[in-house]
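Here is a typical protein record:
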Amino acid sequence: MSGHSKWATIHRKKGLIDAARGKVFQKLAKEIYVAAKSGAPDPDSNAALRLVVEKAKAANMPKDNIWKAIDKAKGAGNGENYESIRYEGYGPAGVAIMVDCLTDNRNRTASMVRSTFSKRGGNLGTDGSVSYIFERKGIIVIPSDYNEDEVMLTALDAGALDMENNGDTYLITTPSDKFIAVKDALADMGVMEFLTSEVTFVPNNEVTLDDETKEKVYNLIEALEDIDDVQDVHHNMKEDSDV
């Protein structure tokens, strides 16, 4: 299995300063709130909420923050209402970019996303213009402290698609509907630390860029991520594993 851009982007995020990490937690809290409000406020009976909680845990979001977002949804009534919107477009050199948002003001979000693309050398596309490049999959990364054969057998038996040994980590890919089963199986096996665990969009093909163009794409991605309404940015730029 080849590496993919989302994991390399996560590596970049690990170096965020505390203020930036706080912003990531705010975005996760919004996502938790929406998932808890749209279904049961219990991760064990709400699959969508369970997925977001697992994502928050992997980002080291404090448990108190997670439960505050869930408790807020319990008593929300007809309070805050967020709409899920996806924008598709192209970055420098034609890199495919998909932007997932949660917003209470569609016009504001559209204006900010469009402006960011334009200012950073990209442009918005139409619905479906790049989404066909991506496939929704579960991604689990754990330290390589565990026996490789045991991890692989456990993951594959639970429904994983593949596993890659990256030296100090194992990268496990699952179908989106097998993500929870694979993670639970690894936890039952004794895995205590999940460096990342989420269901996300993985590109079916990647484009290779020179360093200068790659930096321009990074600048666009980071500017998009800095928008409060933006939850996730997916792209198909090939990145070095040591980014």
The chain has a mean pLDDT of 89. DSSP finds eight helices and eight strands in the chain. The two ends are 19 Å apart (CA to CA). Strands lie at 83-90, 96-103, 123-124, 134-143, 162-165, 169-175, 196-203, 230-235.
